[in-house]
Design goal:
Layout (H helix, E strand, L loop, with lengths): L6 H6 L5 H13 L4 E2 L9 H9 L19 E3 L1 E3 L6 E2 L2 H18 L3 E3 L11 E4 L4
Antiparallel strand pairs: 1-3, 2-6, 3-4, 5-6
Length: 133
C-alpha cells in the first residue's frame, strides 16, 4: 500500500529543506505504516523552540543552542497506529517509519540522521539532514 501526506502534514512541513521533503515523500510511499508531520514538526521560531526546551522535549533552547528545525533542516513525524488509525509515538511504530525514512535517504543519496539512534537523548520522532557530506 502506498500512502501520501494529508493537508495538515503538507502545511506543517512548509519551509523545510527541499531535500528533506524529497526524502519524506519517498518514505511515505514505501512505508508499511502511514505517518504524518505534527504541528511544530517542521520549521520553528526561536520562541516555539524555547517552549519545547522548557517542557523538556528538546535540548536546544532556540537561542544559544539552535535546533535544526529553525533552519528547516529537521522534521518530526508521528506514525499512524495501524489498529486504531490514530497518531502514535510508540517506539515500534516510529521504528517502522524510521526504516522507511532511512531507506528513502539511502535510495536518494541524501544523508539523514534519525534521533532514535542517538545516545543520551533519544528523539524517535526526529529526523535531520546529516552534517556529514
Amino acid at each position: 500500500m502506498s500512502y501520501a501526506f494529508g493537508d495538515n502534514s503538507l502545511k506543517n512541513r512548509a519551509g523545510i529543506n527541499p531535500d528533506l521533503i524529497i526524502v519524506l515523500d519517498r518514505a511515505v510511499e514505501i512505508s508499511i505504516y502511514d505517518f504524518g508531520i505534527p504541528h511544530l514538526g517542521g520549521v520553528r521560531t526561536a520562541t516555539q523552540q524555547k517552549k519545547l526546551f522548557d517542557e523538556g522535549l528538546s535540548l536546544a533552547d532556540g537561542y544559544t543552542h539552535k535546533s535544526l528545525h529553525q533552519s528547516g533542516n529537521a522534521v518530526d513525524v508521528f506514525a499512524i497506529d495501524p489498529d486504531t488509525g490514530k497518531a502514535s509515538w510508540d517506539h515500534e511504530h516510529l521504528a517502522v517509519v524510521a526504516a522507511a525514512m532511512l531507506q528513502a535517504s539511502s535510495e536518494l543519496g541524501i544523508p539523514l540522521e534519525w534521533g532514535g539512534l542517538w545516545t543520551g537523548f533519544c528523539d524517535r520522532p526526529h529526523f535531520q539532514l546529516s552534517s556529514e557530506d
